[in-house]
Amino acid sequence: MLKKKAMIEVHFNWIFILIAGAVIFVFFINIVNKQREFSDIRTSGTIATNLESILTGAQISTDTVNIIDLPKVNIGFECERYFIGPTPKQTKSNVIFAPNLLKGTQMISWALDWNMPYRITNFLYLTDPELRYIIVNKADRPGQLLFDELPEEVNKELIELGNIGNFIDKNNFKVKFIFFDSNDAGPLTKLTYMKDEDVTAIVIKDFTSSTIIPPTGTIEFYQKNGLVWQLTGTSYYLKKESMIGAIFAEDWDTFNCVMKKAFKKLNLVSKVYLERSETLETAYAGTNCAPPYSTAIINLENLRDSSEKQTGEFPTSSITMGAMQDYATNIGSSSGNANNLAQLYSCALIY
Amino acid sequence: MKNKLKKSQIQMGESVAILFIFFILMIFGFVFYMNILKGSAKVEIEENIQLKAIGIAQKASFLPELQCSDENVRKEDCIDLLRLDAASNLIQQNHIYYFDIFEFSNIRVEKIWPPPTNTWQLYNNTPSNFSNRLSTFIPISLLNVTNDIPEYYFGTLIVEVYKR
């Protein structure tokens, strides 16, 4: 009888230890989980704050390249939003050209001024050092010029079209090719294991010289489809900065969407310059200063109207881009244009 | 036998008491730790708000719609009065677009010298309820190009950012 009771007691002790142990175990697991969640939120918050500062900085200073160290977290980019892990944030009115995924521990940011001919906004380019950009050059095309334009920090390579057979895979998570005039599917045979959406290309048209990047042109966007390139869309660029945007943008859709934001800003800034020029024209009526302002007003009105159209309809045509470039030139500072004439007659400058 | 039962009951009671105290200590430690975390999170939130306020002030002072330029070369801390007139109307007409940039803030430009003083309301989105307001005063020069010789006035760009 006594032996039986002692046995029950021993068993009860073990059950008690087991339950208490389980409770302690669950308690610690809970703490660890809560901590992990908290640390994830904190990391996302830190990256969001850093990105906000980068975006603010990019609106202020130009021609700056920064390498930003990041915790190991995926940052997804779309035209209107970016994601830090699963948390979305708005890109708002910022003009950002970036691949849809940055997953390294570093991020490269680069900002350039977009002038038409007055300052409109800064274009921000974001990329990952693990992302590979290959410029495929050919005779009489500005491959070298474009290669030199891109910052040293970007993972870029210049290959002559004749040597494209020597292309080797370096196990990057995304590869982007930049071709002139037409594409070449040769390198795709070495990238068969990669997902189709991770291998993209753009073909820049309308280049005729190796020393000049024309202010406007046509860009075709391609994506790997097995062993061939599949055309996803055709768009246009206005000024070198937007052509560079096409290099960094994920695809045709994103490029167009970001460019629409840029055109919206162009529309707003043009309205300010238009109102200013109208006031100056009235103030200096009957003097030598009036004609430059009149020229500026006509071209600013055209820029305002075309940019408004592009805000909703981009991409329209290369002719529209050419016309917008002409309006900008007419307002500009080159000999005989409005700002140049205003300077010549010692009048207040248009911009 | 009764004694043995009592002994084991006391033993059990001891074990439960130890576990109870252990958990009490754990909860104390956890609450203390959470309070410290909460405190540091509060400081971080406050820092972020200040950072946002500085960011908005920077964006306002470098706005292409306002900034003076000479052949597209920007003049820092200078606002063109003609652009200011045009931009203040434009910003009010495109309030939603500029909300993305200035959020909940009140931005105005005050001409201080020479008299008479004048104020231009650039953007105003003051929330009805706010818990804090961070003000930044940026000394600026105001350029008037409507005279034959351009004139510079002295003014302040006032950026008030609200925390809801």
Regions with little confidence, pLDDT below 50 for 5+ residues of chain B: none
Distance between the termini of chain A: 105 Å
Radius of gyration of chain B: 30 Å
- Main sheet characteristics of chain B: 6 strands, mixed
Rounded mean pLDDT of chain B is 91
Spatial strand order of the main sheet of chain B: 1-2-5-6-3-4
Q: Which H/E pattern describes the elements of chain B? A: HEEHHEEEE
- Give helix and strand order of chain A, one letter per element, not per position: HEEEEEEEEEHEEEEEHHHHH
Low-confidence segments of chain A, given as residue ranges, are none
Helix count, DSSP H or I runs of 4 or more residues of chain B:
3
Oligomer: heterodimer
Give the domain tally of chain B: 1
Please specify the SSE layout and strand pairing.
The complex is a heterodimer of chains A (351) and B (164).
Chain A: H1 2-60, E1 64-69, E2 75-77, E3 81-84, E4 87-90, E5 95-97, E6 101-102, E7 106-115, E8 119-127, E9 132-137, H2 143-149, E10 156-160, E11 175-180, E12 199-204, E13 216-225, E14 228-238, H3 240-248, H4 252-283, H5 290-313, H6 318-331, H7 338-344
Parallel strand pairs in A: 5-8, 9-10, 9-11, 11-12
Antiparallel strand pairs in A: 1-7, 2-3, 2-6, 3-4, 7-8, 12-13, 13-14
Chain B: H1 2-61, E1 67-70, E2 73-80, H2 81-93, H3 95-102, E3 105-113, E4 118-124, E5 132-144, E6 151-163
Parallel strand pairs in B: 2-5
Antiparallel strand pairs in B: 1-2, 3-4, 3-6, 5-6
